[in-house]
Design brief:
Length: 358
């Protein structure tokens, strides 16, 4: 029978593990981010494009609660009791607001710590109604004031470094950013959150868009035989993360979209100069709700504050800009991935049914 501190942690369901914090919590944060900032961005952009203020207002409200949504989602993944879960709304708001460019990363770190402390004291006293939310909120908001600003500064500096490196080495950085962000999109983590954390705009943002589209459109098209129209839609404008169980069974099915992203990334940066000057979060969205493309288009006309801070300016898009966007986001992934998949099927690395969605 376990005694002492280990027994206490087990009783409180506090588990220090890379899976719980790096996969469960981060994956849940991605859902919270989607249910607030991402869907809000889609609705707001739609309202702006068709001139419906009501939709613009709805989107604005949804975007405003991204911090609480992410923190509560993290608490849910950590199996926090209700009093802790509800208290995380204040923690998420503070961490996101204080974190600036690194808001999502600050929320992830701070919400995890606050949730675990809240769980530790939950139902341990006769005044639980005061102690549990008090401890959760005080620790969370105090950490937000203390460490969120430096996190934001570091994240912004790292994003600028990536953006500058992409400008100096558009070919090699185009490959690296496209491949890595694309892989992140399919993994059970949030490529959108990563791009938001790093403030990826400009050429780096364009390469990130290319990588995400290679994964989503690539899997959607090359698995069409198995998944038909439902799979085309769910992966093409939903998420390629649906393929993760199949990737675990046969990692080789991941080769075509990864190779495609290594091709489309430098084409985006070197040939078309594709830049994401919309909100940085759109850089990690790919074709999910067409957010990546919406971000590029709105960035042409009205660059985001993050992009303007790095020297972006409004442009009048040319035919080349539109052609590049369509080729990078849709045409090339839809052509390249099935070709690569066919080659791998010939050598027996991929078999029919390997990409069937459950």
């Amino acid at each position: 029978m376990k005694t002492g501190f280990k027994a206490f942690l087990e009783r409180k369901n506090i588990v220090f593990s890379a899976k719980r914090y790096g996969i469960d919590a981060l994956g849940a944060m991605a859902q919270g981010l989607f249910c607030s900032l991402l869907i809000g961005t889609i609705i707001k952009t739609l309202g702006q494009q068709i001139g419906v203020q009501y939709l613009t207002d709805i989107g604005t409200y949804a975007m405003a609660v991204s911090g609480p949504a992410m923190a509560i989602a993290i608490g849910y993944a950590l199996q926090a009791p209700p009093m802790v879960l509800f208290s995380l709304a204040a923690v998420g708001w503070a961490a996101n607001a204080e974190g600036g460019a690194g808001g999502p990363l600050a929320v992830l770190i701070i919400a995890i710590i606050a949730a675990e402390f809240g769980k530790a004291v939950s139902k341990e006293t006769k005044v639980d109604l005061l102690v549990t939310p008090g401890v959760t909120i005080i620790i969370g908001v105090a950490l937000a004031k203390l460490i969120a600003p430096p996190i934001g500064t570091a994240a912004n500096a790292f994003g600028i470094m990536i953006d500058n490196a992409t400008k100096l080495q558009p070919f090699w950085m185009g490959i690296a950013v496209s491949v890595l962000v694309g892989i992140a999109l399919t993994l059970p983590i949030s490529s959108a959150a990563i791009c938001a954390v790093l403030g990826l705009t400009g050429l780096a943002g364009g390469a990130a868009v290319a990588g995400c589209c290679a994964q989503m459109i690539g899997f959607a098209v090359m698995s069409f035989k198995e998944n038909r129209w439902g799979g085309l839609v769910s992966q093409g404008i939903g998420t390629s993360m649906l393929q993760m169980p199949n990737i675990i069974k046969n990692p080789k099915i991941w080769i075509p979209p990864i190779v495609a992203s290594a091709i489309t990334g430098p084409i985006a940066t070197c040939v078309f100069g594709l830049q994401m000057n919309g909100a940085p979060i759109n850089s990690g969205m790919g074709t999910c709700g067409l957010c990546g493309q919406i971000g590029v288009v709105t960035g042409w006309v009205t660059p985001s504050e993050a992009a303007v801070a790095r020297g972006a300016a409004a442009i009048a898009p040319t035919a080349s800009d539109w052609i590049g966007l369509i080729l990078i986001c849709f045409v090339l992934p839809a052509v390249l991935c099935p070709i690569f998949a066919a080659l791998l099927k010939k050598i027996g690395w991929i078999k029919d049914g390997d990409m069937t969605l459950s």
